[in-house]
Amino acid sequence: MIQPGQTYQVGDTVHFANATLPANRTRDYEITATSPRGINVTASGCDYFFTHEQADHLGITKKL
Fold first, then answer.
1. H-helix or E-strand containing 53?
2. Are 37 and 46 a contacting pair, CB within 8 Å?
3. Rounded to an integer, what distance in angstroms lies between the CA atom of residue 49 and that of residue 27?
4. Which residues neighbour 30 within 8 Å (Cβ) at sequence distance 6 or greater?
5. pTM of the prediction?
6. Which residues pair with 48 in a beta bridge?
7. 17-39 pLDDT, tens per residue?
8. Rounded-to-integer distance, Cα 60 and Cα 17, Å
9. Residue 45 and residue 15: Cα distance in Å, rounded?
10. Rg of the chain over CA atoms, in angstroms?
11. I need a labelling partner for 38 at 20 to 30 A (CA). Which of 1, 3, 21, 59 fits?
């Protein structure tokens, strides 16, 4: 869950703890763009857009 005050910026590496496929839970996703509507990420040569609500539902977390 995105915590109050938590922000994500271009270049951050994130994971999605609740992704459907196990491989997608541990894959590194790099944020390539942010907007008021959501975030764009890239991984393994594929680009994805998630609304903030979708990212929250997928369990977005910064890679530690």
1. helix 52-57
2. no
3. 16
4. 11, 12, 13, 14, 41, 42, 43
5. 0.86
6. 41
7. 999 999 999 999 999 999 989 99
8. 6
9. 16
10. 11
11. 21
Q: Tell me, what's the pLDDT at 7? A: 80
DSSP string for 31-48: EEEE-SSEEEEEETTEEE
Determine how β-strand 60-62 pairs with β-strand 46-51: unpaired
- Beta strands 60-62 and 29-34, pairing class: unpaired
Q: Check whether 1 has a pLDDT greater than 50.
A: no
3-state percent breakdown (helix, strand, coil) of the chain, nearest 5: 15, 40, 45
Task: Note whether 63 and 13 are within 8 A (CB).
Answer: yes
Residue 5 has a pLDDT of 59
